[in-house]
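Data availability (excerpt). The following record was deposited with the supplementary files.
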Amino acid sequence: ASLYWLTEDKTHQKIVEGEEKGEGTFAFGTIYEFESTVSTDELEREAIGTDIRVALKVEASIHSESDFRGEEDDPFDDQDHFTREAKATMHRAISENHPPENVILELNSLKFAEHREFSDCIIAFIPVILDHIASTRGEKSDQEFVQHIMTNITFWNDLYSRFLHSEEDYDIFVESIELSCKNSDILSKTFHVILQILYSKDILEDTHILRWAENARQFEDDKTKALLELCKPFLEHLEEEEEDDSEEEDNDSEDASGDNDDEE
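Predicted structure:
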């Protein structure tokens, strides 16, 4: 099973089932499990303290580095060459105004060279894009900042589309945005704006956003509750649209059934 977690320096790492505790696997942060249920025995019960469930975040215990390695060892030494390189590529692209197609080529080459998944690319580039947006707010008014967000988010639409393939990719995409917003006082109040922009540009569908909300409602932490409250009007709008679409499909089905009866 593929696992992702947020490390102390706010980067994501990928591990596989069976890695030993001695590698620092569970040293920091939030663990993600996206592919299958994994028993807590396999994932060091003492470090997790709870079940791991499909596509749900699980808060892990925070352990000191010495719990996993010697004091002289760096727990992030060889942490994830791919993530470092992918983030460096994204930082360079933003600072030097590279077009999205160039970044897509670079990230795709890196992905194939290191045998990584599309989701690994998403996990690397989303925080860089959002951190750039937050760091360039300056003295902009709220309205100006919303426009700033839209300009910067939509500039990379081709990049998102290139790396969003499976439903898992979409889940990781939204959750990566969520984490970046939770970790930024500036972005924490704009999560709903980012989702609405991505929805309006057909990057995200209502099912992706509503699925995020359904999963998020299972957590009681204040930051998650705050994001859900922020998104409440938008979520209600999406739910209403989904209900209307469902009713239209039912009516179309009934009409088709009636036509068949008439022909008989």
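Summary of structural features: The chain is about 55% helix and 5% strand.
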